[in-house]
Design goal:
10% strand, 3-stranded parallel sheet, 5 strands, 6 helices, mainly alpha, Rossmann fold, two-stranded parallel sheet
Length: 125
């Protein structure tokens, strides 16, 4: 399972509703894009040091998914299809979607705009 930024945030805050889906996942992966979004988000947090320490510990036990040439192919294919259908999504979410399809993994997210990608399986909590 791949975590979106809102899932990572909920997990960091120990949201009880998200704990079960994450624990049941055979593999939990984090796109480097999500890592960047999360780090950006905690820059202004008054709990920044706490979140950074938690994140450093957590990512040591997690698979970080980088963007590579194959990801770029998925990105272009998904982006072209969505543009053609008039259903674009934010660029970072397009990269996250590409990683999901590339690695054949579902996405844990509350963002419904991922549902416009027919071959992407989104799980909510």
């Amino acid at each position: 399972m791949i975590l979106d930024t809102n899932a990572l945030s909920a997990y960091a805050d120990a949201d009880p509703a998200i704990l079960d889906p994450v624990r049941k996942a055979a593999v939990v992966s984090l796109p480097v894009i999500v890592l960047g979004e999360y780090r950006l988000g905690i820059q202004e947090s008054r709990h920044r040091a706490q979140y950074e320490a938690w994140l450093d510990e957590w990512i040591a036990r997690t698979i970080i998914l980088p963007v590579d040439m194959e990801t770029a192919r998925f990105y272009a294919s998904i982006g072209f299809d969505l543009k053609k259908r008039g259903k674009p999504i934010p660029a970072n979410d397009l990269w996250i979607s590409a990683l999901c399809l590339q690695h054949k993994m579902p996405l844990l997210s509350r963002d419904h705009h991922f549902d416009v990608i027919p071959t992407l399986r989104r799980i909510s909590w």
